[in-house]
Amino acid sequence: MPLYEHVVISRQDISPQQAEALNDQLQTLITEGGGSVAKIEYWGLRNLTYRIKKNRKGHYSLLAIDAPADVVKEMERQLSLNEDVLRYLTMRVEELDLELSPVLARRERERERERERGPQTSPRGGFEELGL
Fold first, then answer.
1. 10 Cβ contact partners less than 8 Å away, ≥ 6 residues apart
2. What is this structure's pTM?
3. What CA–CA distance (Å, rounded) separates 47 from 69?
4. Per-residue pLDDT tens for 24-44?
5. What φ, ψ does residue 119 adopt, rounded to 5°?
6. Which domains does the chain show, CATH number per domain?
7. DSSP-assigned beta bridge partners for residue 47
8. Quick check: 96 and 3 in contact, CB under 8 A?
């Protein structure tokens, strides 16, 4: 079966749980059509480069899909009808990359640096908030 990478941007005013529920709906649609989803990554609420339908931010998700072309076409049709979806892009790839995407890899590196540093304290012991 053909392999695809699919990115969905949904509206900023839905909750992260609703964005993940949309990913689950897509996964169900694909598996019922005889395909499989190898990876789903929720990238979170991110700034858009330009406004799309009056939205400055969007919930980004990446799916790695192994499915027949007609299933992917039906998935895109369903997304075009969904009012919560701002944009989507499906690209056919030669092989699926199952490692963390650069977006999530960078986020993990930042979390590791924060853990290594430990809690940040001010030189005065936090008394500047009290005005002392």
1. 18, 19, 22, 58, 59, 61, 84, 85, 86
2. 0.76
3. 31
4. 999 999 999 999 999 998 988
5. -65, 140
6. 3-118 (3.30.70.60)
7. 57
8. yes
